[in-house]
Amino acid sequence: MWRRIREIWGRRRLRIIGTLLVVCGLFAGGFASGWSAHTLAGVPAAADTTVELVAAPPDDAAEKVLVPDVRGLLLTDARQAVVDAGTPVDGISVVEGPSALPAGTVTAQDPIGGSRGTGTVTLTVAVAGTMPALVGIPATEAAQTLLDLGVRAVQNQVYDPAVSEGTVLAVDPAAGSPLAATATLTVAGPASSVFVAELDPLESACSSGEISLNGQDHEQSVYCSVRERESVQTYLLDRQATLLTGVLGITDRSDPGTSATVRIVADGVTVFEGAAAYGASTPFEARVAGALRVEIRFSGTVGERSGEVGFGDLRAVGGPDGIDALAAG
User: Fold this and answer.
1) Euclidean distance between CA atoms 68 and 60, whole angstroms
2) Please, which residues bridge with residue 315 across strands?
3) Per-residue pLDDT for the chain (329 aa), expressed as one digit of tens each?
4) Given Cys at both, which of 8, 39, 226, 314 links 246, Cβ 3.0 to 4.6 Å?
5) Do 238 and 292 form a contact (C-beta atoms < 8 A)?
6) By CB neighbour count within 10 A (0-12 exposed, 13-18 middle, 19+ buried), where does 165 fall?
7) What domains can be seen in the chain, in order of their start residue?
8) Contact criterion met (CB below 8 Å) for 298 and 259
9) In contact, 262 and 296? CB cutoff 8 Å
10) Which residues, in sequence order, are CB contacts of 38 under 8 Å at separation 6+?
């Protein structure tokens, strides 16, 4: 029995030893193969860790300072604000310019507020000045000139047929006067008109309504009975009109022998003279610019029946503002 056990154990031991030899052989072969490949390929090179430094583009904004808007400040305060924003003290220069603003007030700057400067700023400060000559130039140009001087422009429009629309006719204060906070520009404006028949006369010798002159009807007219003695029809135009326009004649319902002489007087100065005859009509205009009081004076002769001198569609012509005021009474 023991002999049998020894035989079995002997065979198992041989198998174990064989297996160990096979494993050791395989390990040794793999190690040799790997060592050989490593030797043939060489040691791998280390990764390149060199860092290339690229210069950043220059930042222009970093070299410039943001300039504050200091217009309207007194010079002392404006200087401090500019310095606080980063501009050096020796980079600030000051020039003087005429202005209606209080003396020493900053009226302009270069560079303008909100932009970036290069370390220098020029400030313009107010000094006393006089009104410039503006009559005859476009109103837009005049208004901008005044604005640059710190003056607020107010415009009044009047009609002047001899001047292009939008042209400055007068300025208050006048050229050469000290600069004021506000100036009034009188500007040539578009024509506007109101029928004189719609105005209330100060002194009445006439009537208003529709008439016919030389066969032509005129709905908004003034007509007056003709007498040898001069009669007067007076209107207060309050300096709001520039012209009186209409058609002059003897009404068709008058005696054919009627004739009349007419004068239009503005503040005592005769601005129109004309004659009216039956069967004829004549357009006319009378310049009444700046007139406060206007009189229509007339006299004439009549035939067997009564006669009337007529002013067909008589209008007061002027700027829109003035005519609106005149019509409002």
Assistant:
1) 18
2) 195, 245
3) 445 545 554 555 545 555 554 444 544 454 444 444 444 344 444 445 444 534 444 455 446 788 999 999 999 999 999 999 999 999 999 999 999 999 999 999 999 888 887 889 999 999 999 999 999 999 999 999 999 999 999 998 888 888 898 999 999 999 999 999 999 999 988 889 999 999 999 989 999 999 999 999 999 999 999 999 999 999 999 999 999 999 999 999 999 999 999 999 999 999 999 999 999 999 999 999 999 999 999 999 998 889 999 999 999 998 888 899 999 87
4) 314
5) yes
6) middle
7) 65-127 (3.30.10.20), 139-189 (no CATH), 193-328 (2.60.120.1060)
8) no
9) yes
10) none
- Encoded amino acid at 40, one letter: L
**199 closest CA partner among 296, 113, 301, 126:** 296
Reported in sequence order, the residue ranges of the chain that DSSP labels E, i.e. its strands, are 65-66, 92-98, 106-110, 116-117, 121-127, 152-158, 168-172, 182-188, 192-195, 206-213, 216-225, 231-236, 243-250, 259-266, 269-277, 281-287, 293-301, 308-318
Of 88, 97, 94, 175, the C-alpha closest to 137 is 175
Q: Are 305 and 272 in contact (CB under 8 A)?
A: no
Helices (H), the chain: 2-41, 60-63, 75-84, 139-148, 320-328
Residue tagged 């400067």 (tokens): 117
Radius of gyration of the chain (CA): 52
Name which of 96, 104, 99 is nearest 77 in CA terms. Answer: 104
